[in-house]
Amino acid sequence: MDTSQFKGRHLFVAGGSSGINFGIAQAFARAGAKVTVMSRSADKVVSAAAQLQALGAQAIGIAADVRHPEAVQAAFAQAEENFGPIDVLVSGAAGNFLASALDMSPNAFKTVVDIDLLGSFNVARLAHAHLRKPGACVIQISAGQSFIPTPFQAHVCAAKAGVDMLTQVLALEWGAQGIRINSIVPGPIADTEGLKRLAPGEDNLKAMAERVPLKRLGKIEDIARMAMLLASDWGSYITGAIIPVDGGLALSGPRDFTAAAAASRREKA
Ligand code: COA
Ligand code: NAP
């Protein structure tokens, strides 16, 4: 794909200071985009912006928690002031841990719903005033838990199902303004915090890779490429789609996290 079309475009990544979301930021930075990364930790966003600048990109980092609408609103205002209207918004702030519903306090459940679902709503809703219209592309980073009922993941299943429904409703509400919005559903992606939490230790990682029909873990680059495709001219007729990029894992049914949950309890103790 010709990535030169992203030169000078403004990419804003919520939850963009590490892992998959930062990988997307790096891919766009290499293509010449101007990049804003936002997440809670001031240290992490400063370091992420410095790494993007080292790739030759114009980049800024803004510390804000997606659970705090005023902070998110200020972040979008600052981003537009620096780099103009947002062409591509990636919304991927999330939290996860393995726990059965009975081992989860109401606040534990609420915390993940607040970050993943309410946070995604805050980000999309408050970004709207700053999106390029027509032409903006919004990408939500979802998870297979959105449609695969998964033990030890009641909080994430509920939250990400909401995220994907939000994607579809906003595609309907914003389509006429020339804004597209889609969800990417990553599979198990190597060398990420998310996978470390779901598959702690080598044995769990191997078992996870074995369950994937393509028999390998995903790479951050696999997700970054789909984000670029969606944001590019080639994705111009795609909106409201929930797109697994998971080596076929979604076809293999519910996952059994019993062993991983036991390992994660041992790690925590
Ligand atoms: N099992 C059960 N409950 C847990 C838990 C676990 N492993 N980890 C946290 N909780 C509970 C806490 O006990 C607390 O509930 P309580 O007040 O009833 O005791 C609640 O969750 C909130 O925890 P807290 O640490 O205050 O939340 P936070 O807002 O500081 O952090 C998390 C949010 C818990 C999601 C944290 O893991 C995080 O920041 N994650 C971001 C990174 C990440 O998860 N990456 C992977 C993305 S897929
Ligand atoms: P990660 O590195 O932990 O990424 C999460 C990012 O969100 C971090 O930059 C974190 O930075 C930020 N964040 C967390 N809470 C936030 C909050 N309240 N406000 C603002 N930012 C917040 O994990 P990852 O594994 O790469 O996951 C990235 C996305 O991919 C998530 O949406 C996840 O659900 C999805 N996903 C991952 C996998 C996988 O295999 N890893 C599989 C399926 C889906 P701060 O700590 O600075 O806030």
From TrEMBL:
Keywords recorded for this protein, A-Z: NADP, Oxidoreductase
Pfam families documented for this protein: adh_short_C2
GO biological process: fatty acid catabolic process
The UniProt record lists the keyword Lipid biosynthesis: no
Single GO MF annotation: 2,4-dienoyl-CoA reductase (NADPH) activity
InterPro entries noted in UniProt: DECR2-like (IPR045017), NAD(P)-bd_dom_sf (IPR036291), SDR_fam (IPR002347)
Keyword Ribosomal protein: no
Signal sequence residues: none
Family: Belongs to the short-chain dehydrogenases/reductases (SDR) family.
Entry-linked PANTHER family: PEROXISOMAL 2,4-DIENOYL-COA REDUCTASE (PTHR43296), PEROXISOMAL 2,4-DIENOYL-COA REDUCTASE [(3E)-ENOYL-COA-PRODUCING] (PTHR43296:SF2)
Protein name per UniProt: SDR family oxidoreductase
Native source species: Caenimonas sedimenti
